[in-house]
Amino acid sequence: MHEMGVAMEICRIAEAHTGSAGASRLRRVAVVVGNDAAVEPSSLEFCLEALLGQPPFGAARAEIVREPGDALRVDYLEVDDGCAGD
Amino acid sequence: MAVRVIDVRERVMEQNERIAETVRRRLYEADVPAINLMSSPGAGKTLLLERTLAELGSALRLATIVGDIRTQNDADRLARHTERLVQAVVTGGACHLDARQVSAALDNIDLGDTDLVFIENVGNLVCPASWALGETTNAVLFAVTEGEDKPLKYPKVFQRSSVAIVTKTDLLPYLDFDLDRAIGYLRDVNPNIDILLTSARTGAGLDAWYDMIRALVPDAAHAASAAG
Question: What is the mean pLDDT of residues A34-44?
Answer without folding.
Answer: 90
